[in-house]
Amino acid sequence: ATQRPVWNHHVNHVFVLLDASFQATAVSPEFCISGESRPGHCEVVQALSSLLVEEDRIVIGYGVNDCEGYLAELLPTDVWDALEPVGLAARHPA
Predict the structure, then answer these.
(1) For the whole model, what pTM was predicted?
(2) Which of 15, 69, 75 is nearest to 43 (CA)?
(3) 67 CB contacts (<8 Å, ≥6 apart)?
(4) Of 1, 50, 71, 74, which cross-links 31 as Cys (Cβ 3.0–4.6 Å)?
């Protein structure tokens, strides 16, 4: 996750944890993926298209500016640690 783009609009993403009935139980803060062409900045157009979750890594496939595709790799602990309870989960923690 990096700073927001310097243009007039931007796209950010969030991770959402769903329960068995597809109700959101936790949400991460907004994030974007640092650009290949401008490290530390995010492209205006990013589209996350795939997610691979393994024991030791999370891989996100994403498109940039409707032209190029990339992969980003995250640690699962970083994602879990970023999640904040929402809805009933926030009011009745386990």
Answers:
(1) 0.73
(2) 69
(3) none
(4) 1
